[in-house]
Amino acid sequence: MQLEEWVPPQRLADWMLDATDSMLATVDDFTDEDPRWMAPYRDVINPAIWEIAHAAWFAEWFVLRQLHGREPLMANVDAFYDSAKVPHITRWQLDFPSPGRTRQYVKDVGEALSDLATDPKGLDSTTYFTLYAIMHHDAHTEALTYTRQTLGWAPHSKLAPAGLVAAEPPNLGDADVAGGRLLLGASRSQPFVMDNERWAHAVDVAPFSMAKNPVTIGQFAEFVNDDGYDRESLWSPEGWGWRAAADANQPVYWRGPAGNQEHRVFDQWRSIAEATELPMCFVSWWEAQAFCTWAGRRLPTEAEWEMAATTNQTGEKSWRYPWGDRDATEADAALDANTGGLVPVGAYAASDGPWGHRQLIGNVWEWTSSVFQPYPHFEPDAYRDNSEPWFGTRRVLRGGSWATRSRYVRSTFRNYFTPDRQDVVAGFRTCALD
After folding, report:
1. 90 in helix, strand or coil?
2. Is 29 left (phi over 0), alpha (psi -120 to 50) or beta?
3. Fewer beta carbons under 10 A from the terminal one: N or C of the chain?
4. Alpha helix (H) residue ranges in 71-125
5. Which segment of 168-172, 196-200, 355-359 scores lowest on mean pLDDT?
6. Has residue 157 got a pLDDT over 90?
7. pLDDT tens across 51-89, in order?
8. What integer best gives the mean pLDDT of the chain?
9. How far apart are CA 105 and CA 124, in angstroms?
10. Would you give the distance in Å from CA 212 to the centre of its chain?
11. Which fold, 3-150?
12. What's the maximum distance between 2 C-alpha atoms anywhere in the chain?
């Protein structure tokens, strides 16, 4: 499919406005005097006033300025919002434009890109780079959702209330995958992919058995209550060092004694006993690894995960989603924030992968055992900082979360974070030991 077939000009224009509105919605309850614009420093977040303007700056710089030669829409934007030149700690020290001016800048950029998308006199590369800017907006919108959870803020007012989703009881068993030849990575037939997905290359995958569902909160509670955080033998030396440095004796948003724990969902504490069928979430790679050791299991490699999500018993690959090469709907997965939060792991039975695995897309990102590395014949994007600086330092996650935009994620999409991150809407599923 050609890019313009998937995203014709009017859809591109609408997406740009939607991406802008969705990002601004994450701060829609902030007054201009709200101290949350400059929340206390943490190494896993950005000040909201910087983050929304940075996303707009990126879109303006990438499309309006670099591609179309236009002048900046606000003075001194490079000095404020260029992430490559403004160190993380510095983002709490700059004298930013007012919140009102910042919001207007974000809107102005979004409207300018939307207008350009339908300009018949535009360049034929405008679609690609505008779509890249939209995806960048979407990533920061999801990050701002993480920020509200990290800091214990209420969900923003435009986030759909977390509601009940029809679900079957969790299936805690495995589904066998025969293995074989996998084309790992993206195809040139896909209309849009990130650089680290390029390009499909043949790998051999041995037969394996992988859990049909992600690990549930109920399962993880068993690990916690069995002194999982206190038994050094369950942790790798690096993981045990992280646990000690982080002073972690249970998951990051949990509190209370064994058998009577609560977990925090945004600003509300809720009983673990009422959430046992939800996927375990906000868990670091080290914690996922320790759980696997306790359970006599292991994390899947990203090749195994992708085979389970894309490649059927005859070797035919569905490049985009487990349910086929069509856009996601609300009936397919917990995506686009359409559920307002986590849903039970037994939901969305109709979207099982070709081998019977559920929720490979949506609900929670899933840690894999794989280190984030380039594929053979890697081709960097025009935005070279997207992937290259992070190779070898992070672990790969797959599948997207309930807060991920469906236009952003696909079965070949590779997310990547350092193994200590607990703020990401991330869980995991396990494989049987060989």
Report:
1. helix
2. alpha
3. C
4. 77-81, 99-117
5. 168-172
6. no
7. 999 999 999 999 999 999 999 999 999 999 999 999 999
8. 96
9. 26
10. 21
11. Four Helix Bundle (Hemerythrin (Met), subunit A) (1.20.120)
12. 65
Sign of CA dihedral 193, 194, 199, 205: negative
The architecture of the domain spanning 160-434 is Alpha-Beta Complex (3.90)
Structure tokens at 271: 């009983």
> Which tokens sit at 318?
């569905």
For Cα atoms 433, 295, 349, give the angle at the middle one, nearest 5 degrees.
80
Q: What are phi and psi of 408, to 5 degrees?
A: -90, -35
pLDDT score for 118: 94
Instruction: Report the pLDDT averaged over residues 281-287.
Output: 98
pLDDT, average across residues 239-263: 97
d(C-alpha 221, C-alpha 394), whole Å: 26
Q: Which residues pair with 188 in a beta bridge?
A: none
Domain boundaries, the chain: 3-150, 160-434
Quote the CA–CA distance of 219 and 278 in Å, as a whole number: 10
Beta bridge partners of 114: none
- Name which of 344, 335, 12 is nearest 145 in CA terms: 335
Confidence of residue 161 (pLDDT cuts 50, 70, 90): confident
Radius of gyration, alpha carbons of the chain: 21
Name every residue whose Cβ is closer than 8 Å to that of residue 174 and which is 6 or more positions away in sequence.
209, 210, 211, 212, 431, 432
pLDDT, one tens digit per residue, over 226-244 is 999 999 999 999 999 999 9
Cα–Cα distance between 76 and 433 in angstroms, integer? 55
Q: Do the Cβ atoms of 373 and 201 come closer than 8 Å? A: no
> How far, in whole angstroms, is CA 131 from its chain's centroid?
17
Residue type at 194?
M
Answer yes or no: are the C-beta atoms of 51 and 140 closer than 8 Å.
yes
For residues 277 and 427, is the Cβ–Cβ distance under 8 A? no
